[in-house]
Amino acid sequence: MDAENTTPLLVASSNAAIGFEEGMSLLRDGAPALDAVVAVVRRVEDNPEDHTVGYGGLPNLRGEVELDAMVMDGRTLKAGAVAALKGFRNPVLVARRVMEVLPHVLLAGEGAATFAREMGFSESELLTEEARTIWKQRLEASLAGSDEVPPEIASYYRHMARFVREMTQDPEAAASEHETDAMDTVVVLARDRAGNLAVATSTSGWAWKYPGRVGDSPIPGAGGYADNRYGAAACTGRGEMAMRAATARSVVLYMKMGLPLWNAAREATLDLYALEDEFANVLTIYATDAHGNHVGFSNREGRTYIFQTGDMEAPDERPCAFVRPDGSTEVRPASGRT
Ligand code: GLY
C-alpha cells in the first residue's frame, strides 16, 4: 500500500467518541496522527459530563482536581507528559508542549503548572459543582477522624478498604455501587495517511486518590506507547497495574518480538495476573499494529472500545477480548463499559 494513502484510523476508549468527528476530519485532510489524537483528547477534557478526565473530573481526597496526560509520537518515539497538574483544563496540550519545548519527558505538580503558565495556558477552576457534590456524598461516610493516623490517610484507607471488600464479595454490585470511584481515562490511538502512529492519554486519575498520586496515563510505556515500526497501545483502568507490568510497552515489544497483534495484547493482559495486589482491578488495553489492525483486551468481561477508519461515517463499538487467568480468551457482545 502507498504509504501516503494509508486509510486513517482512530482507536479509543468509548468516552472519546465526542472528539472523533474532529480527529477524523484532521486525518482525512492529511494531518499527522499526533494532531488527531491531541484534538480528540482535548474535546474529552473539555466535556464536564466526563468525570474521569479534565474539566469536571473527580477530585483527590482533598477535593482538588489533579490531572495526568501524555502524548507520544510513533515517528520519533518522543513523548511529553504532565502529572498531578492542578488548575489547567487541557493537560494534553501542556504535555505536547513539554515534548516540543523541553529536553524532558514528564513534568509534575507545581513545575508542570509553572511551565503551563509560561506556555500561555490560562488557569481555570476544574471542579464542577456536580463533581464537588459527588465528592462530598462519596466520602461523607468515611471522613471521620482518627487519633492514630492523620485523618486524611485514615479516611482514605477506610474508603479503599470498603471498596476492595465489596469488590471481593460481589464484583458486579461493587462495580455498579462504585461507579463514581472512577479510575478511567481517555486514550486515543491514531494512524495517519502516511502510516504514522501516535497516542494521547488524559485522566483525572483514581477518584479520591491520595494527593499527589500519579497513575499510568502520563508514563510512557505504562499508559501509552507508540512506535511506527510495530504498533501502538494504551490502557484504561487501574494505572498501578499498567505501571508495574509496563503494559503499553509490553504490547509493542511483544509485537517487535514477532507476535501478531492479538497474541501480543493477550500476552500483556495475562501479565497482569502475575501482579499480587489486594487492590487488583480492571485494566483494559487498546492496541493497533503498524498495518492498522486493532484490538481491545481486558482482564474483565464486558469492556468495549471504539474505532473509525477514514471510509466510515461514524465510530463503531467493538467488544474487548476477555482473558482469564488460565489464558482462555473470549469475545462477548459489548455491555458498554470501557
Ligand atoms: N488509568 C488511570 C489511572 O490509573 O490514573
Short summary of the structure?
By secondary structure, the protein is of the alpha+beta class. It contains 10 helices and 14 strands. β11 (304-309) and β12 (316-319) form a beta hairpin.
3D structure, described in words:
With 338 residues, this protein is an alpha+beta fold. It has a single domain, classed as 4-Layer Sandwich (Glutamine Phosphoribosylpyrophosphate, subunit 1, domain 1). The protein is 32% helix and 22% strand. The protein is built from ten helices and 14 strands. The chain has helices at residues 20-28, 33-45, 91-101, 109-118, 129-140, 151-169, 171-177, 239-245, 247-256, 261-271, and strands spanning 9-12, 67-73, 78-85, 106-108, 186-191, 197-203, 224-227, 231-237, 283-289, 294-298, 304-309, 316-319, 321-323, 329-331. The strands form two sheets. The chain has an eight-stranded mixed β-sheet. Strands 7-8-9-10-13-14 form a six-stranded mixed β-sheet. Strand 11 and strand 12 form a beta hairpin. Helix 1 runs antiparallel to helix 2 (33-45), helix 2 (33-45) packs antiparallel against helix 3 (91-101) and helix 9 (247-256) packs across helix 10. The longest helix is centred in the middle third of the chain and has 19 residues, at 151-169. The radius of gyration is 19 Å and the shape is globular. Glycine is lined by residues 183, 185, 203, 205-206, 215-217, 236-239.
> How far is it from the N-terminal to the C-terminal residue, by CA?
32 Å
In round numbers, the mean pLDDT is 88
Specify the biggest β-sheet: 8 strands, mixed
Secondary-structure element string: EHHEEHEHHHHEEEEHHHEEEEEE
CATH superfamily: (Glycosyl)asparaginase
Sequence of strands across the biggest β-sheet: 4-3-2-6-5-1-11-12
Number of helices: 10
> What number of domains?
1
Give the fraction of residues assigned to helices.
25-40%
Oligomer: single chain
Low-confidence stretches: 143-149
Shape: globular
Q: Which architecture per CATH? A: 4-Layer Sandwich
CATH class: Alpha Beta
Secondary structure tally: strands:
14
Roughly how many Å is the radius of gyration? Answer: 19 Å
Strand content: 15-25%
